[in-house]
Amino acid sequence: MQNKQTILQNWTNEQVSINEVINNIFNLLNINDIEIKNKVIEISSHSRAEKPSDKWFYVLKIVSICSIKHNKIFYQSQLYDLLTILSRVLDEKEKEVINITIFNIYKDIMQNYNKLNDILKLIFPLIIVNLMYILKYGHDLEGKPININAINNYYQNSKLNVENKLKKILSLNIEIDNTQDNKLAGILEKLTGRNEKVIQIAFQNLIESDRKKVENVCNNYQKLQEYYKIIETDRFSEIVEKEAGRKLSGSQLQHAIYSIKKTKLYLENLLDGAFVPNGKQGINHIKHNIEYGFQLTGIIQSKRKKTIFNKNKI
């Protein structure tokens, strides 16, 4: 078995498998719980991450969640090791912010960790991984864009209302239905014309909110095909207004038509991570407008409605 220093020096190995990353992380963090490791291996076997850093981040996320679900509280030394790993696998471009953030967390753990209640100690690894996700990807684990200049406030707020946070984490379904992924990839291949393997990798790396939107589009594949057939006819407005349950304005109908015509563009940009948030509201207006049209046509459900994904429709 490699020693810890060798593992950290060689973490960028492009050929490393997901199981090797799991072994390396369990070694580095001194986790000896075989039940947790087997669960991490089971879940991570469906990961299609290709870049070494994405593999490490994916496994660290699953390890931290599984540890919470198995009531495994990290020792201080394990948290220090976690910070060391993350400091290595984060991008160099934000190195100054990364160093300051890691130093502040390290100092906080050293001074205050023994005073924390058990719930906060239990979720602390996920708090750390979540912060590092922000530094790497620009959003937290829930997909919410976060300004890295506000990361210290975000960190402090992460340690509040921990009972509710624990309930939310325990309710997470981190099991992955690989068969369902394959069905989605097959439909995305038809809608985008892209290679199925490439699609599977991109879909796996989507944030949860965008993944659900892609699922909505795929779930309504047949409806999309019907819309394509009638989009230039009066029948289209009749069907869409029936779907919306109300009379729509000319502008709203144009939104609906635009969105249906831009389905391929929308999916490609989601899969590529090309919808960059902009403006004070932190949204991408093209993405926002297409999704509004999809909501009018029933392709994507409004946030006010509960999303139900019916696997039998695919």
Shape: elongated
Number of domains: 2
SSE series: HHHHHHHHHHHHHHHHH
What summary fits the major beta sheet? none
Number of strands: 0
Low-confidence stretches: 304-314
> What is the helix tally?
17
Please characterize this protein's 3D structure:
This protein has 314 residues and is an all-alpha fold. The chain folds into 2 domains: 4-170, no CATH class; 178-313, no CATH class. It has 17 helices and no strands. It has helices at 4-9, 18-28, 34-44, 52-69, 76-89, 95-112, 118-137, 151-158, 162-170, 178-192, 196-204, 208-219, 221-230, 234-244, 250-261, 263-272, 285-297. Helix 2 runs antiparallel to helix 3 (34-44) and helix 7 (118-137) packs antiparallel against helix 8. The radius of gyration is 22 Å and the shape is elongated. The N and C termini lie far apart (45 Å). Residues 304-314 have low confidence and may be disordered.
Write the layout of secondary structure elements.
Layout (H helix, E strand, L loop, with lengths): L3 H6 L8 H11 L5 H11 L7 H18 L6 H14 L5 H18 L5 H20 L13 H8 L3 H9 L7 H15 L3 H9 L3 H12 L1 H10 L3 H11 L5 H12 L1 H10 L12 H13 L17
Helix pairs in contact: 2-3, 2-4, 3-4, 4-7, 5-6, 5-7, 7-8, 10-11, 15-17
